[in-house]
Amino acid sequence: MSAPSSNPLLRFENVEATHADGTAALRGVSFELAAGERVALLGGNGAGKSSVFLALGGFLPFRGSICAFGRELTDQSSAEIRRRIGFVFESSDDQLLLDTLEEDVAFAPRCAGIGEAEVAERTARALDAVGLRGYERRNPRRLSFGERRLAALAGAFAQRPELLVLDEPTANLDARARRRVVDALLQFRGALLLLTHDLAAASALTERALVLSEGRLVLSGPTDSVLWDTRAHSALGLETDDLLALRRPASRRSP
Amino acid sequence: MEAPRLLSPVSAPIDPRVRVTLAACAVAAAALAGRTDPSRHAIMLSLEATIAVVLAVCERLDGRRLARALAFGAPPIVAFAALALTRPGTPILELPGGVTVTREGLAAAAGSAIAASSALLAIALVAATTAARDVERALLALAVPARAVAAGSLLLQQLSLLGDEARRTHRAAAVRGAPTKGPMAFLVSRGRLLSLFESSLLRGVALDRALAARGFSGRLPRAPLPPLAMRDRVLAAAGVLAAAALTFAPTR
């Protein structure tokens, strides 16, 4: 769907995957993402966004080829590739593993064997970035829904990934919590793959968008163009309210 | 200069490594003491009960948590003691169903109940005064295999999440008119257990993915504990010596 570059950060090439019940999850998905690029993968419920997420994590068997940081994703390479990617799961509850926020945010750096001084510095910066400084001793599972999402994001930030992959990071959040998540993501300087059906967040955070429908990529282009393409509207199942929300010019739009 | 107080609400809490060591000593002593001399069990239980009361006051024990922990352990102790009652020996009581209680069985049951109670008391006390993360860090510091500690910790965490889910489904069933008390409630809840089992499996898969995505390698990454203070070293040494004395020193 996109013009191939010589050395992309991430490349999906004709990726096909199947759910456990035998239905097709991904049907020949191909796309690339360059270093530092911010891409939205848009799609309605069941379009295959989470399958892309799981396949990239090495959690869903696939056919075809996924190449990240110049390495083919295989059972042997998946752990090393995952160390360079920050994954933010759709359900924060599955991702928050330890009982103080400070320790949970420090999970990945400590697993990577980084020294305690740097772990402390990364944790503090990550908590600053998501606005949860002062919550260090709180149990992350006892935070509000929006704060748990931010806590999961802080955990990914502390990893200092080259690529951040987020599965529906703004789903089920109120307007203020969505803004906090988007503001935090705007501070991230690496490449971003945003899997979402939140068009306003996609518009605020990404410069390129891919539209996924029934496991196939059906559209690709600059985010603001894709959002106004009628083919995208039917693929995304958009309704009048969704389009009205996008009517304001991009510069004034808030997520 | 004010003299340091060993155990008081204003002094620093006892290091979790020492708490866990003391509990391990108590459990070991409870398991071994009866083998050398059954009368030691009674001595041990009274000593541990005294220590428990002192610690409970000094450590501002959460009484509800302690009661819950003790209640959790009581049924296995009762069952174990009941099994011991029928040990071969002089019969003293015939129970329905042809079960004969013997004098030797009664003594064995009393010994087992006392030993198990003292061990349980030690474990419950640690559980009720120490945060799970501190117990986990202490076990790691005491060279318990990291994978076993991580498995236990994650299991407890998942049980807590499943408990939340069970409460949610219970409330959802209640608002839809399902009975919440009595035998009918039990019958209705059996159906929910299956869905709870299914969701626990799904949660397990999700947890496994999240652990892998965050670089988990078998050891939960916890902040290291500070070096042991002199007071804590003394306490740990005293605990080990006391347990050894209670177990092996001659009584007569």
What does this structure look like?
- The complex is a heterodimer of chains A (255) and B (252).
- Chain A has 255 residues and is of the alpha/beta class.
- Chain A is built from twelve helices and ten strands.
- Helix content of chain A is 37%, strand content 24%.
- In chain A, strands 6-7-8-3-9-10 form a six-stranded mixed sheet, sandwiched between helices.
- In chain A, a hairpin with a 2-residue loop joins strand 4 and strand 5 (71-72).
- Chain A is globular and about 50 Å long.
- The model of chain A is unreliable at 249-255 (pLDDT under 50).
- With 252 residues, chain B is mainly alpha-helical.
- Chain B has eight helices and two strands; from the N terminus they run αααββααααα.
- The model of chain B is unreliable at 1-10 (pLDDT under 50).
- At the A-B interface, helix 2, helix 3 and helix 5 of A face helix 6 and helix 7 of B.
- The coarse overall form of chain A would be globular
The largest sheet of chain B, given as strand count, sense and whether it forms a barrel, is: 2 strands, antiparallel
Radius of gyration of chain A: 18 Å
The main sheet of chain B orders its strands as 1-2
Task: Enter the CATH topology name of the domain at 1-84 and 193-255 in chain A.
Answer: Rossmann fold
CATH class identity of the domain at 1-84 and 193-255 in chain A: Alpha Beta
Largest sheet of chain A: 6 strands, mixed
Class inferred from helices and paired strands of chain B: mainly alpha
Number of helices of chain B: 8
What class, by secondary structure content of chain A? alpha/beta
Number of strands of chain B: 2
Give the strand tally of chain A. Answer: 10
Strand proportion of chain B, as a percent range, falls in under 5%
Helix content of chain B: over 70%
Strand order of the largest sheet of chain A: 6-7-8-3-9-10
Oligomer: heterodimer
Poorly predicted spans of chain A: 249-255
- The SSE string of chain B, one letter per element, is HHHEEHHHHH
Rough outline of chain B:
flat
Query: Helix segment count of chain A?
Result: 12
Q: Give the ordered list of helices and strands of chain A.
A: EEEHEEHEHHHHHEHEHEEHHH
